[in-house]
Design brief:
Two copies of one chain form a homodimer.
Chain A: H1 3-9, E1 10-18, E2 29-37, E3 40-44, H2 48-52, H3 58-74, E4 77-81, H4 84-87, H5 96-108, E5 112-116, H6 133-150, E6 157-162, H7 176-184, H8 186-200, E7 205-210, H9 215-226, E8 233-240, H10 246-257, E9 264-271, H11 296-314, E10 319-324, H12 348-360, E11 366-369, E12 375-381, E13 383-389, E14 392-398, E15 405-409
Parallel strand pairs in A: 1-15, 3-4, 3-10, 4-5, 6-7, 7-8, 8-9, 9-10
Antiparallel strand pairs in A: 1-12, 2-11, 2-13, 13-14
Helix pairs in contact in A: 6-7, 6-8, 7-8, 10-11, 11-12
Chain lengths: ~400, ~400
């Protein structure tokens, strides 16, 4: 483990274990076990929507369940799809119930959920096209208020606005959100969207998210912050279909955002295990192939790069989450971007990431003996834990902030 | 003349000419003559500093005077150099006197002057390097206050900040301004620089200026405006050493800035009349050649492109100025970017631009006869004029705003 990870992601804690009568539990063996990372190890989990809504059956259902098991074994966070055009294809008939089932499925399994995205020009509702710009603004604002309110407690983390850098100049096809953004300006639109979301869920983690990692994006973030918009985390996509950025570029990108001293989420991380997309493709969506197989060499490359990417990001003090995109092959662009093959088997990248996330970076059950004061010195990864003494289980949290003693009554 | 130019740059005016006793000057022939464009036809005029300060002699002086004559025959605005490292190589000993002489030289010849630039990371004062960031901020602010104050009335137009998009990430060499910008952020620095300049000359035209014409720049402008910074005009460089942008790109660049409804100045326009700089050069300063001759084919290309560029910009409603960079060959990068060759002769681009600026787009002396009410209907380019009746000369101005009658007493 590199020293950045040790310094940034672990903390020393003193546990003071007391009996019910408040006397120290002296010289006793207890078991300590990590139950959750504070760090958000996430994945796009669109597949959970049909699964949680009973839309699979037979062999298909069993496969989906196996994928879901792999998902919960590795990840603690799921990104669920709120693309407006799909979420509410007919105005007034949103898929709220289905998405709630998927979010509940995650929460029952100890995962947190992020909704993606609330405002985006791509895959937005087609029915906006018949509206005037002021009407689009009202509809978009109401959409955010409705969904953030409906999902409060289930989804408390949102990509509020997606790809605002290109939004007003997006010229692939006419759409309501590009029109709106062109009319009101990027910063005013970001502000209006954040205001709407914040009003309905003040404690939610609200992100701005973009694939653009040029100066345009950090200048936009600066402009939003100078305009008084409260951004909780900066979302950076990293769809590396055309090849891994490498550590140097990754650190350079991070460096552009460190001055804001805000949490950074790598929201959409892709590394393919097949042929790379040709470098001349500018908009990844332009690359349409019927067949894009995973290969043995590709999988070897993918696992090496994935490890390096996760190590780099987990070692950076401002990064608080990484989301893999997609969990299984054949998702967006039909790419072999999964950690799981089409047949449901795990690729090396799945196994090796699990060895990190639930191995090297994880406190597996350990037995420790309290001293005469009932105390235990303990260094753990930031996150949630259980202390087990006999049949008693008590949970506690190791956060960077608590350098003091954690008192646990058993 | 294309219709945009007719619509945007000309206005219909009614002149009502009265005698001293206020009776109409009926049925009399008067002469009308344009004396100045409202539009800023400018050029980099660094060469005027040694000329105005008597630093040339003999043949060199005669050549400089001939260049200066060509300059004043075509242009109404001059950009003078305020690169901090050259303007004040030793702290506390600025070249104020020399620059004042150059500015006065221009004003005596009816030209306006722009100072370029007040804050820039390139060519900045080397002695900033020994300072802390707060000290650099004070020094930079004081420099702006001193110079804007010293030149008030002589120079009332400034490129306040230059290339802020790249400023904090400029990595060619260490310099005080990059350090400062990285520490305080682009928008805060722009704001501080504008505040300093505005405080000393509230009615000055203050510009932000950049070579970056990606989304990063218009997002920066938006961020500055949302943060409450009053920008009087947006400066866009267009150093086309690697080839003319063409009309389409030019209009696309303009389109990115039209939503701000602010005046736009093309502050640094270069079209070479020799070999183009290779496309792989990213920072133009990296291209260092001893010899870069003007050629016949190059001059033919240059004149065609220059005409097209000026027509495009003069036809755009928000553009209020174009500055050619440089007037003579052998300036920046030793490029054949001039309108004048090294031997002092005019290139076709000089002659043809003059035919536009002082020909097609200019009201040469015309004789008109007043009606029985002393009135004349008259369509002219926006700018200053003289009405001559016998030995009496009266000046008047045609502005877009005055659709009403202009009363002139002779």
């Amino acid at each position: 483990m590199n020293s950045e990870i040790r310094n940034k992601r672990m903390a020393d804690a003193t546990l003071k274990v007391l009996r019910a009568d408040k006397t120290p539990l002296a010289n006793q063996e207890v078991k300590i076990e990590q139950t959750r990372h504070q760090f958000l190890f996430g994945t796009a989990a669109f597949d959970l929507v049909p699964l949680a809504n009973g839309q699979y059956s037979g062999e298909e259902k069993e496969q989906a369940e196996r994928r879901a098991e792999k998902l919960t074994n590795l990840f603690n966070t799921a990104t669920l799809p709120f693309y407006w055009g799909r979420f509410e294809p007919q105005r007034g008939k949103p898929m709220t119930g289905q998405l709630k089932n998927a979010a509940k499925w995650c929460i029952e399994r100890g995962m947190s959920v992020k909704g993606h995205p609330l405002c985006w020009h791509t895959l937005t509702a087609k029915w906006l096209l018949s509206m005037s710009n002021p009407e689009i603004l009202v509809a978009q604002t109401e959409r955010i208020k409705r969904d953030v309110s409906d999902f409060r407690g289930l989804i408390d983390m949102w990509d509020v606005i997606n790809e605002a850098v290109i939004m007003p100049i997006f010229d692939k096809y006419d759409n309501g959100i590009t029109r709106l953004c062109k009319a009101v300006g990027r910063i005013k639109l970001v502000g209006a969207m954040f205001d709407a979301a914040r009003a309905e869920n003040p404690s939610a983690i609200l992100l701005i998210n973009d694939f653009d990692v040029s100066s345009a994006y950090d200048i936009l973030v600066e402009g939003c912050l100078e305009a008084g918009i409260k951004i909780d985390a900066i979302g950076i996509q990293s769809h590396m279909h055309q090849g891994y950025w490498g550590v140097e570029k990754t650190l350079k990108v991070l460096d552009q955002f460190t001055r804001f001293n805000l949490p950074i989420h790598f929201t959409e991380t892709t590394l393919v295990s097949g042929q790379l997309m040709p470098p001349e493709i500018v908009d990844l969506n332009d690359y349409q192939v019927n067949d894009w197989p995973t290969t043995t060499e590709g999988e070897t490359r993918q696992v090496e790069e994935a490890i390096l990417h996760y190590q780099t990001l987990f070692g950076h003090p401002l990064v608080e989450g990484i989301t893999w995109w997609d969990l299984s092959d054949g998702g967006w662009l039909n790419a072999p971007a999964g950690l799981i093959r089409r047949d449901g088997s795990s690729k090396p990248a799945y196994d090796e990431l699990k060895k990190l996330v639930k191995g090297e970076w994880w406190i597996t059950p350990i037995k420790l003996v309290t001293d005469k004061n009932g105390e235990i010195q303990f260094a753990g990864f930031l996150g949630d834990y259980e202390l087990i003494y006999g049949r008693t289980k008590r949970s506690f949290t190791i956060a960077k902030e608590n350098r003091t003693t954690i008192t646990i009554k058993v």
